Automatic annotation (TrEMBL):
The chain crosses the membrane at residues 29-48. Keywords: Membrane, Transmembrane, Transmembrane helix. It comes from Corynebacterium amycolatum. The keyword Membrane applies. This is Secreted protein. Residues 1-24 are annotated as: Disordered.
Length: 241
């Protein structure tokens, strides 16, 4: 048998097994690292489960339009007026800040002092055509996005279509006394919103900060007993909130 010289380059090299011991089990070092990773993962999941970002739908800055559950209507009107004052201040700061925002706009909820029919509610469009009317509020229902008026679909027709749709979803007659507009969700500049507040049929206008994004804030319609003696109209299949 030929022996390999002691200094030969072909000398057999011993195998190294850093990840396991001789009997095939995990080494103590690797077991310690694995255990540490598991502990970290458990902590991360526990913290994440308590975060509002994953435990419930998130609104920008907690934004919501409408009265709090415990808030009386008149208290809400006062708070809505305060939001308009804050809007005017922000509007001034944006137009005179660095960088300048030429035409800042705000989301706002217009609440009427009584239930209006389609013709009456359409006056908001007519008085302030620059406003974008996004959503109709019918009783406890905030409808899906409203299209823009056109030559074939006037403001009044668009709103009347929403009443008929709400009646169908709520399974009530079109002449049901609860079937009317108690508000609109609109988007426009500060001047237009202040002008809407002056309309005779408008009870309140509540504005959000200019950085609020559509679809990321809640809507709580005003369900005042002044609208109707009956329970407010609800149509869960139609409402977007």
């Amino acid at each position: 048998m030929t022996q390999t010289p002691l200094g030969s380059k072909n000398r057999a090299r011993p195998e190294t097994r850093a990840k396991s011991t001789g009997d095939g089990s995990i080494s103590p070092v690797m077991a310690l690292i694995s255990g540490f990773c598991v502990v970290v993962l458990v902590i991360v999941l526990a913290v994440a489960s308590t975060s509002d970002r994953v435990s419930k739908p998130q609104n920008i800055n907690g934004d919501a339009l409408g009265p709090d559950p415990w808030e009386a209507t008149e208290q809400y009107v006062e708070r809505a007026d305060e939001s308009l004052e804050n809007m005017k201040k922000e509007d001034y700061q944006l137009k005179n800040g660095q960088p300048v925002v030429e035409d800042p706009k705000f989301w706002a909820m217009v609440t009427f002092d009584r239930l209006l029919d389609a013709q009456e509610a359409a006056q908001v469009y007519e008085k302030e055509p620059s406003l974008r009317v996004s959503t109709a509020i019918i009783g406890g229902v905030s409808t899906r996005y409203l299209p823009q008026p056109s030559k074939t679909a006037s403001e009044e027709k668009l709103l009347q279509d929403q009443l008929e749709l709400a009646a169908a979803y709520a399974d009530v007659a079109i002449d049901d006394e609860r079937l009317g507009f108690n508000g609109l969700l609109v988007y426009g500049d500060a001047e237009a919103l202040m002008n809407v507040k002056k309309l005779p049929a408008v009870k309140a206008v509540e504005a959000l900060p200019s950085d609020a994004a559509r679809g990321r804030f809640g809507i709580r319609p005003v369900l005042s007993s002044g609208f109707t003696d009956k329970d407010p109209l609800f149509a869960p299949g139609l409402s977007q909130n």
